[in-house]
Amino acid sequence: MNQCSIMKKCAFISHFQIATIFFSIIGWVLCIVAVGFVKWRVWRVDNSPDVSSGIVWIGIWDVCFTLKSFARGNMHCQKLDIWNHFVPTEISVSQDLLGLATVLEALAVVFIIFAWWSDYRRELSIIWNLYSIMSNSPINFPSSYFVPSPNSQHIGTGVPVGFVSGLSLSAAVLLRRSPHSL
């Protein structure tokens, strides 16, 4: 395997990891936005003495509408609480689960960034060592080590095992994300 093909594979893996982080952050931000939206349910109401627009917006935290008694464009909102007996179960459960999902997705993004950085450092060190071997860079051991200068050097087992470890991680992510995974 020549040096150019190794670099291309590492660039592909790096782009994949960056895309993973990007989509994870986008997903987390959109989860936060979705939690804050009032427009989970939109009701049309006719002949209401209080609702001027004829529309009521219901979210997982609030119910909002425009009051006829207020100036145009002023919205009246009331909090939905799990202690309100009229709040449906799916809204109460959504309040808990989406709050938990937001926290867990934030942790996932942190762990993905940490894993990416760890993988990047591993791949960088493997590539650097591979380059040093391919360019026949010497190691000047002190005389107390009793190691002579080499006539030649070649790639040992550690370099391919290091590459396979990175590829295994990438394959695991790809297999987990495939439509055929459980």
Keywords:
transmembrane helix; cell membrane; 182 residues; single chain; 55% helix; 3 helices; 4-stranded antiparallel sheet; alpha+beta
Report the helical percentage. Answer: 40-55%
Class per helix and strand makeup: alpha+beta
Name the shape in a single word. Answer: rod-shaped
Uncertain stretches of 5 or more adjacent residues: none
Largest sheet: 4 strands, antiparallel
Total strands: the figure is 4
**Total domain modules:** 1
- What would you report as the Rg, rounded to the nearest angstrom? 29 Å
Distance between the termini: 35 Å
Helical segment count: 3
Keywords: Cell junction, Cell membrane, Membrane, Tight junction, Transmembrane, Transmembrane helix
Subcellular location: Cell junction, Tight junction; Cell membrane
InterPro entries: Claudin
Main location: other
How would you concisely characterize the structure shown here?
The protein is α+β, with helices and mostly antiparallel strands.
